[in-house]
Amino acid sequence: MCLIWFALTSSVRIDELITGIFISFILSLVLFRDYLTLGLPNFSIKRLIFFFIYLIVLFWEIIKANFDVAYRIIHPRMPIKPGIVIIKTKLKSNIAKLALANSITLTPGTFTLDIVDDRLLIHWINVKTTDIDKDTKIISEKFEKYLKIIFE
Fold first, then answer.
1. Residues contacting 1, CB < 8 A, separation 6+
2. Which residues make Cβ contacts (< 8 Å) with residue 110, sequence separation at least 6?
3. pLDDT tier at 20, thresholds 50, 70, 90
């Protein structure tokens, strides 16, 4: 919370630093019980390292998907085949499934519609296959391996 405060204020004045630390401390005390109910795993260096690797992978996938969607938009025949597919996840925790759904939605061309048990309903701008295993490999495999380590 302190880092967010410092990023938002963009200041190193001592009074603003003390205010940020104080507010972060008070919020930590107040919100501690809510944090525990989220079901997040304990902090570890390994999880932190994989989180940063995951952010790089996510950023790269977003860039690739942006170019793919831009290509489809500017192509004269607009080669799209929109549809809804189902993918299966091996993730068990709800927070991990939520992170996966958000990751899929953040990449242009895909949108998570619903999560039911171990299945995600995805709207895909260019459906390549309707086989659940192949769809899962194409859409979510690149995210799942990191999210499993981070959240489970």
1. 23, 24, 27, 28
2. 65, 104, 122, 123, 124, 125, 139
3. confident
Q: Are 151 and 95 in contact (CB under 8 A)?
A: yes
**Residue-level pLDDT at 26:** 92
Q: Which helix (H) or strand (E) holds 89?
A: none
Looking at the structure, tell me whether residues 61 and 116 fall in a common domain.
yes
Using DSSP's 3-state secondary structure scheme, residue 42 falls into coil
CA 15/CA 2 separation, integer angstroms? 14
Rounded CA separation 19/115 (Å): 41
Amino acid symbol at 61: E
Question: Above 80 in pLDDT, residue 50?
Answer: yes
Tally the domains of the chain. 2
Domain of 119?
45-151
Domain identity same for 54 and 29:
no
Q: Could you tell me the two tokens for 105?
A: 């939605």
Same domain membership, residue 65 and residue 13? no
Is there a single domain that holds both residue 63 and residue 11? no
Question: 132 and 79 in one domain?
Answer: yes
